[in-house]
Design goal:
Elements lengths: L2 H21 L2 H16 L2 H6 L4 H19 L20 H17 L3 H12 L4 H8 L3 H18 L4 H5 L8
Helix pairs in contact: 1-2, 1-4, 1-6, 2-4, 6-8, 7-8
Length: 174
C-alpha cells in the first residue's frame, strides 16, 4: 500500500464528518471528500514533501464546498417548526442529543457556505483564527466577522443551541 492509500484509509472518516457539517447531506459530503482527494492524488508527491497533508486537503475541501454551493445556487431552507416541542422530563438524554443534533444540522444548513466553513473550522476542527484564515484564503478579520455573523444568525435560528458555539467563542453576545 502506498502513502496516499494509507492516508485515505486513515483520514476518510474524519474528512467525511467535516464535509457533512459543510454540506448537511451525507451523499454530498462523500462526493466532496472524493473530489478533494482526487484533486490531491495528482499532486501527492508535492503535498507530502511540504509536510502534513491535512491542511492542504482540508483547504481544497472547504474551497470546493463553497464553489459547489455557488454552482448549485440552490438554497435549502429547513424549518425548525416541524421539530417536536421540547418538554422537560419527557425524553431521555439520548433523545435530547438527537434533537439537538437535528436542530444544529438544520441551523447550519441555513448559514452561508463561508459562515458554515468558518464555524466548522473554528469549533469542530478546533482551528485558531489564523489557521482558519489560512485555510480559507482570507484575512483573520474576515474570520472574526464571519464567526460573529454566523453566531448571530444561529442565535436567531436556534437560540437553545448557541451555547454549543458561544462557550468556545471569543464573541460577545449582543
Amino acid at each position: 500500500m502506498d502513502e496516499f492509500e494509507a492516508y485515505v484509509l486513515a483520514r476518510s472518516r474524519a474528512l467525511a464528518r467535516s464535509a457533512y457539517l459543510l454540506t448537511g447531506d451525507w451523499g454530498l459530503a462523500e462526493d466532496l471528500v472524493q473530489e478533494s482527494l482526487t484533486a490531491v492524488a495528482s499532486r501527492w508527491s508535492a503535498v507530502i514533501r511540504a509536510g502534513d497533508p491535512d491542511p492542504y486537503v482540508r483547504r481544497i475541501m472547504y474551497h470546493r464546498s463553497i464553489d459547489g454551493w455557488r454552482r448549485r445556487r440552490k438554497v435549502t431552507e429547513f424549518s425548525l417548526d416541524t421539530l417536536p416541542e421540547a418538554r422537560h422530563g419527557d425524553r431521555g438524554d439520548a433523545e435530547d442529543g438527537v434533537l439537538r443534533r437535528l436542530m444544529l444540522r438544520d441551523a447550519l444548513g441555513r448559514l452561508t457556505p463561508r459562515q458554515r466553513a468558518v464555524l466548522v473550522l473554528r469549533f469542530y476542527e478546533d482551528c485558531t483564527e489564523v489557521e482558519t484564515a489560512r485555510l480559507l484564503g482570507c484575512s483573520v478579520n474576515t474570520v472574526k466577522s464571519q464567526s460573529r455573523h454566523a453566531l448571530c444568525r444561529l442565535r436567531q435560528l436556534a437560540p437553545d443551541l448557541i451555547n454549543v458555539f458561544a462557550a468556545n467563542a471569543d464573541v460577545e453576545t449582543p
